[in-house]
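Open question from group meeting: does this chain pack into something compact, or does most of it stay loose? Before anyone orders reagents, we agreed to write out a predicted structure and look at it together. Recording both the input and the output here so the notebook holds the full record.
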Amino acid sequence: MDGIKYAIFTEKSIRLLGNNQYTSNVESGSTRTEIKHWVELFFGVKVIAMNSHRLPGKGRRMGPIMGHTMHYRRMIITLQPGYSIPPLIEKRT
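Structure tokens returned:
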């Protein structure tokens, strides 16, 4: 489970739970097949589809120096009907 960082709880992701779709941020270097294998192995579910998109890092300023946070990948995982994933721990900021 090193590839999955944390679950996402937004209005859209909560709406997608009704369609048996789960949203989480994953390591940017992870592939779809790796994430699918981790989810199926760890949670004991059957994944039928995966959608992903790469989100850009945000700019951060420290005095006169402009930096940025790392970019990350977000996966939307669709499970077969009858399967479900227990809620993952939400990232605290």
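Observations to bring back to the group:
The longest strand covers residues 47-55.
The chain has a mean pLDDT of 85.
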